[in-house]
Amino acid sequence: NLLYPSARKYAHLLSYFRQIESDTCGIKPSESAIDERIYGGSAAKPNSWPWPVCLPDSDVKTNSLLVVLGWGDEKAGSNALYLLKQSTATVMDACKNVDDYDKTKVFCIVDLTHKSSVCKGDSGGPALQKHGGRWVIEGVLSHGDDCKAEPGEYQNVFVRVFAYLPWINNIIDG
To answer: pTM for this one?
Structure first.
């Protein structure tokens, strides 16, 4: 409520039945808040902060390179929540050690080149991919490795935005 006092919140129905891959929430700001910046108070325009992201037209592809953003720690216990961080990672063909999830609703990424990964405080952050001249949100971080992984050792689990498009569009249109 700090960003948009009159925003409506929508929890996905299946999250009430403890289906972790459906532990999803949507927020729809009031009409008066849609044209306002999150920070600064002036009207948001294309190519100015905050930049809008688009919903996907198709599901994320295996081996795609994604940009992952988060406000979380850089390493366990660092408490660096004031700095937005970015990493790149690859979409895996299957999630390892995540057997109890519906694979049509989640995907996993792994960073094969750097010692960067998601960390405490990054949950809810986006996995983005550039399509043409626009950024598309492919996933939202569910959980990860808690800052411990070496390159390629652990995957991070993201909710597939494409799997929730009917629900998202229902919120947008409703």
So the answer is: 0.74
Identify the CA nearest to 84 among candidates 55, 54, 50: 50
The DSSP string of the chain is --S-TT-EEEE-GGGGGT-GGG--EEEE--HHHHTB-SSSSSBP-TTSSSPP-BPPSSPPPTT-EEEEEE-S-SSTT---TTS-EEEEEEE-SS-TT-TTS-TTTEEEEE-SSSS----TT-TT-EEEEEETTEEEEEEEEEE--TT-PPTTT--EEEEETGGGHHHHHHHHH-
Tell me the domains of the chain and their CATH numbers. Answer: 52-173 (2.40.10.10)
Tokens 């108070």 belong to 41
Q: What is the pLDDT of residues 24-81, one digit of tens each?
A: 666 555 555 444 444 444 444 555 555 678 889 999 999 999 988 877 776 666 665 6
